[in-house]
Amino acid sequence: MNPRQMTTWTTEDSARLYRIRDWGAGYFDLSDKGEVTAKVGFPAGEVQVSLMDIVSGIGERGLQMPLLLRIENLLDARIALLNESFRAAMARQGYQGSYQGVFPIKVNQQRQVIEEIARFGARYGHGLEAGSKAELVIALSTLPGNGSVVVCNGYKDREFIDLGLRSLKLGYRCIFVIETPTELPIILERSKALGIRPLIGMRAKLATTVGGHWNKTSGDRSIFGLTTSQLIEVVDELKAQGMLDCLQLLHCHLGSQIPNIRDIRSAVMEACRYYINLVREGAPMGFLDLGGGLAVDYLGSRANHTQSMNYTIDEYSAAIVEVVMETLDANQVPHPTIVTESGRPTVAYYSLLLFNIFDVTHFEAGALPSTPPPDENPLIHHLYEVLERLAAGNLQQCYNKTCFYRDEIREQFKRGQVSLRTRSLAENLILEILQRILAILEKNGETPPELEGLREQLADIYYGNLSVFQSLPDHWAIGQVFPVMPIHRLGERPSREAIIADITCDSDGRIDNFIDVHGTRKTLPLHPLKDGEEYYLGVFLVGAYQETLGDLHNLFGDTNVVSVRINEDGSFDLTREDQGDSIADILGYVQYNAKELFERFRKLAEQGVRQGSLSIAERQEILECFAAGLRGYTYFER
Ligand SMILES: *Cc1c(COP(=O)(O)O)cnc(C)c1O
Question: Domain named Orn/DAP/Arg decarboxylase 2 N-terminal: which ranges (predicted)?
Answer without folding.
Answer: 95-348
